[in-house]
Amino acid sequence: MTAFNDFLRAVRAPLGAITLTLLLGFLLVMMITDQPVLAYRDLLLANFDSWSNFGLFLNRAMPLALIAIGITFAFRAGVFNVGGEGQLFAGAITTTMLGVALAGLPPVLLFPIVIIGGIAAGAFLGWIPGVLKVKLGVDEVVVTLMLNTIVLLFTSYLVNQVIRDTAAYGAVSQLVPKEIWLPSLPGVPKASSGILAAVVLAVVSWVVLFRTKWGAELRAAGTNLRYAEAIGIAAGRRVIGAMLVAGGCAGLAGALYVLGIGHRFEQNFSPDYGLVALTCALLARIHPIGALFTALFYALMLNGAAYMQISTDVPRSLVDLLTGLLVLLMTARVVISRRKA
Amino acid sequence: MVLESFLSSVLEQTAPLLLAALAAMITQRANILNVAVEGMMLVAAFTAIAVGGATGNIWLAFFAGVLASVLASQLLSIMTLKFNADFVVAGLGINLLAGGATLFMLERLYNSPGGLRPISFPELWHVPAGSLAFLPVIGPVFEGQSIVVLLALLAVPLCWVFLYRTPVGSYLRAAGEDEHAARSAGIRVDRMKALAVTISGLLSGLAGVQLAMDKLQFFLPDMTAGRGFIGLAATLFGGGQPWMTAAAAFLFGIFGALGDRLQAFDIPSQFILMLPYAAALLGLTFARWRTVMRNRPAKITE
Amino acid sequence: MTDPQNILELSGIAKTFGDKVALKSIDLAVRRGEVHVICGENGAGKSTLMNILVGIHKPSGGQIRFNGQQVQISDPIAASRLGIGMVHQHFTLVPSMSVAENLFLGRHPKKFGLFSDRQAMVDRARALIEAYNFGLDPQAAISSLSVGQRQRVEILKALAFDAELLILDEPTAVLTPPEVEELLKIIATLRERGRTVLFITHKLREVKAVSDRVTVIRHGESVSIHNTADVSEADIARDMVGRDVFLVGRKGDVERSFGDAVLKLNGVTRTNAAGRRLLDAVSLEVRAGEVLGIAGVDGNGQTELAEVIAGLSTMQAGNIWFDGADISDMTVAERQALGLGFVPEDRLDRGISKTMSVAENVAATNYERANILRRGFVSSARLAEFAAEKIKEFDVRGAKPKTPIGTLSGGNMQKVVIARELEREPRLLLVSQPTRGLDIGASEFVYDRILASANAGRGVLLISSELSEIFALSDRIAVIYSGRIMAILDRADADEVTVGALMNGAGKEAA
To answer: Transmembrane segments in this chain: where (chain A) (predicted)?
Structure first.
């Protein structure tokens, strides 16, 4: 019973912020269109109209969930990781490069190589701000923001100048070999099975964070670094470790996107997944399983907006606007609850 | 001539960075890490182009742009100071909201999600060509620069005077350095922070206006492209001191201008665009490294 | 109904923060021109009361009369306009600014209506410094001043605005004994010049030395008022605690035998970036079963000493030995594994993580030892069980295993820290300022545990700036001054005069 009450208390604030944002959005929609109910129905429910819609919805949720789960580790270790986008791109481009370059290898070998490559590239990008913060005290927010831009420019160079598919329109790479594409989710043909990795990782992350000594040490380092040092925790290593996990998760998201959804690298494949995932993690109050659900919610909105735009004259960028509103609103909550805790 | 035109483009590249850096600096002195400079710039840029295109009036466009940014700063200050939101998160919220709102309006009002390009757009005041011919080097560098560039240069000493030579500036620094001390001296710390955020909004607005109105005269989604963050890096790099921050902004501006020159060679444009970001990253790391080295315990010399 | 003799009268002042009652009902009458002490335990509500008097907090109930008029004190500026000046326990000076700028913070003189008149500030500051003979440079940055000098700036800040009533909040906590003497003289001067002084302290000796009258508060209520001359220290102590107080102490007359040295420092030296020696060739040893007290005024190297021994900071010369093994290059964890227990000086800084639960704080270093891991994973049932045991054993009040530790009182947090460190059964317990900010009840408990540890054969290194604590617990007393050990005395040979002098660098040099 108390567990249930704890649960209610935990989800009250995020649900409040979401409700308030959706209400504000509804007011806005009412001003634009004379079919506000239809617009909102499509925004929230059109994802379930067909298996195909549902599959696309799961595909949208996968990178968000994975990055958000990773960011949970960073936040729990006291690192404000805004670098999800760069880490995601690093993972995606590395997987693509390896897949294209080593296309001749047998799939049993190639598949793990490209996955590990993607994870390692993301982890490396997480490692940089982690090390700079621990060793020199460089502000991680600024570092990750700078790295995002640098990585995006770098991938733009690679996809345009190095592995571009000249037959295709836009900045896209050659396809990775079909043999290493992820199978689709059983029963949902359009959905890549990558979402399963997100579900599994959410649970594993919860166990690691809250049921292992390593997780307890990481959280100690994140809540009070000087305390963690004083009780003999290698606090700096925990912080860097958390950033490796955060970057690794985002890198995995990039890898799975390429293998399961895009099958190639596309420079514009991400509607700012990194920043939206940060929002998901914060909205879930830095809880990995909660982050899975907030990611699903966001995916619902992101895809729903497209259906809404088709059926009514409400532009899909309504969702970007709502995201901004939600971030503004929810932080008030997060801080208050952090102070109480 | 090569030198002059290079310096001229340095000045042009630096102006928005400098204003963004000063915007971040003022809030930094009130102990606020302000990532919202980026979003406020974007709001100002969009408003300036929209109003300028609609009215054809340059000053209306200019002030509307700055005002929009100041309004965005007020939203930030209400969310953080009144509702205790975290400054970094709320700042990112402002950025997302700015991106979303401008895109929403492009789609809704102009039906052109790609950007906003008014057919005719009024000109900002520029230093007339030949008017400074009597000054060697300096003259040609300043000729053709917009009034906002001059304002940006003027803003550096103004910020210094404000912070170090006025009572309110002192109180603002006190509020940022030691809240407890400031509060017990009767300084309203929240008001000082609100003031810092407002000034930051003003300066960010100028930065955005310069970016959109000076040469380009159009608006693109996400046209600020991280300049607000570079400004933030310049502030951290310059330790929150006006002159050092300005120097850092110029350094990043030089890299930007250098990038434009290098485009003539066979270097992919992406690497050139990367330069200011990489410079900011390395510069910041180097500044911290020096501090750490300086604070190491001294070796014992017998 | 008001007595014209009184400059300040409080009746029934109450203050609540949310559902927490800080002050129940305070009555206070301060006569013009007297030195009045408010005395109470940590947590009795002294600081809240002071913050109400200077307008930082607003009272939830009651009346304040100043010079016979009922007043509302809305903010510190209003207080200083009335003539109430405050010298805070934690200095309210901005380190990067000059003495003059700090004196006029919040009320800079202006020129041309817009700019700060810096010359006027410096001139007026200099005049003030000379008037009270405080020997300060008005243009020196606060960060370059000593603690005693900073306190003088604080006092000047209040005097700069003609404070009739000067409130001093625990002003001696940070001073050396001679600096305390100096301060008491300053207070006498202020009284001669017709100022009224309200002095807050929990040190009974100061009450007797300085005051005309004393008001004692306990649990947010004023419980008694006395002419200081008419009461003894014991009377005041009884009022403060509400019962008779017997702080346990080491009995000096019992013959004791100690084991071999557990901890040995040899020439330990630590420098700062400027090359100043924060620890200068410190050599000492702690034997099994012994309490070695390190006496000294705050800021003379105690923090650095604790950190170097714990392994949290490097030293530039010297060696540390633990049970005969050189641990100079070992990590914190390795030292703890050998048997070092560490109770840091500032609980909130290094002792606990406020937002984590009591259970996670007490278990932090004890997962294996307390059998909390099951096949590598934390058993939350066993974690709660372990925490519950410790909460009971160490009498941690108001806590369940899942309670965030930050919501507990200082004393209960300290009990959790001690429980965690003792669980390891350390060979040496390093305790730094163990009762700082604790009430008497919790202090008794802590004393008890420290002595029990020594009796159980552990070595104890006790670092404290409370001389009474050092004398109550130590078998030997080392005095630290400016990073040097001035002398190491047997408890039997030490008296407060000698130790006090050594704390100020007097006496024999440890050349």
So the answer is: 12-33, 53-75, 87-103, 109-129, 141-159, 191-210, 239-261, 273-298, 318-336
**Under the phi-then-psi rule, with left for phi > 0, alpha for psi from -120 to 50, and beta for the rest, what region is C58?**
beta
Tell me which residue range forms the domain holding C431: 261-503
Cβ of residue C81 closer than 8 Å to a chain B Cβ: no
Number of domains comprising chain C:
2
Instruction: Note whether residue C252 is domain-resident.
Output: no
Using an 8 Å CB-CB cutoff, list chain A residues near B277: 146, 149-150, 153
* Residue C220 and residue C268 in one domain: no
| Distance between CA atoms of residues C29 and A34, nearest Å | 71
Looking at residue C247, its pLDDT comes to 58
Question: The tokens of C342 are what?
Answer: 């560490």
The more confidently predicted of residues C435 and B202 is B202
Q: How many CA atoms lie within 13 A of A294 on its CB side?
A: 31
Complex prediction ipTM: 0.86
**Which chain A residues are closer than 8 Å to B233 by Cβ?**
142, 146
Lowest average pLDDT, out of A9-13, B193-197, C476-480, goes to A9-13
Question: How many beta-carbon pairs under 8 angstroms link A with B?
Answer: 147
- The DSSP-derived string for chain B is -HHHHHHHHHHHHHHHHHHHHHHHHHHHHTT---TTHHHHHHHHHHHHHHHHHHH--HHHHHHHHHHHHHHHHHHHHIIIIIT---HHHHHHHHHHHHHHHHHHHIIIIIS-TT-B--SS-PPPPBPPTTTTTTSTTHHHHHTT-BHHHHHHHHHHHHHHHHHHHSHHHHHHHHHHH-HHHHHHTT--HHHHHHHHHHHHHHHHHHHHHHHIIIII-SB-TTTTTTHHHHHHHHHHHTTT-HHHHHHHHHHHHHHHHHHHHHTTTT--HHHHHHHHHHHHHHHHHHHHHHHHHHTSPPPP--
The domain that holds C300 is classified in CATH as 3.40.50.300
Q: How far is it, in rounded angstroms, from Cα A61 to Cα A300?
A: 8
Packed helices A107-131 and A235-257: angle between N→C axes, nearest 10 degrees: 140
Handedness of CA A161, A162, A163, A166 (dihedral sign): positive
Q: Which of A40-44, B123-127, B198-202, B243-247 has the lowest mean pLDDT?
A: B123-127
Which tens digit of pLDDT belongs to each residue from C199-208? 888 777 777 8
Q: Between vectors from CA A218 to CA A214 and to CA A221, what angle results, nearest 5°?
A: 140
Chain C residue closest to B173 (CA)? C94
Residue-wise pLDDT tens digits, C65-87: 998 889 988 887 888 888 888 88
Examine residue C226 and state whether it is found in any structural domain, yes or no.
yes
Residue type at position B80: T
Poorest-confidence range of A255-264, A298-307, C413-422? A298-307
CATH 1.10.3470 given to domain A37-336:
yes
C278 and C230 fall within a common domain: no
Residue C249 belongs to some domain of the structure: no
CA atoms within 13 A on the CB side of C44: 24
Query: For residue C302, which amino acid is it?
Result: Q
More confident residue, C256 or A244: A244
Chains that touch C (3 or more CB pairs under 8 A): A, B
Instruction: Determine contact: C273 vs chain B, CB below 8 A.
Output: yes
Up-side HSE of residue B223: CA atoms within 13 Å toward CB? 28
Residues C152 and C300 in one domain: no
Beta bridge partners of residue C217, listed in sequence order: C222
Instruction: Quote the Cα angle for A89-A94-A98, to 5°.
Output: 155
Domain ranges of chain A: 37-336
User: Within this chain, do residues C331 and C371 fall inside the same structural domain, yes or no?
Assistant: yes
State the Cα–Cα distance between residues B252 and B250, nearest whole angstrom: 5
* pLDDT higher than 80, residue C439: no
C385, pLDDT greater than 60: yes
Q: Is residue C173 part of a domain?
A: yes
Q: Do B184 and C114 touch (CB under 8 A)?
A: no
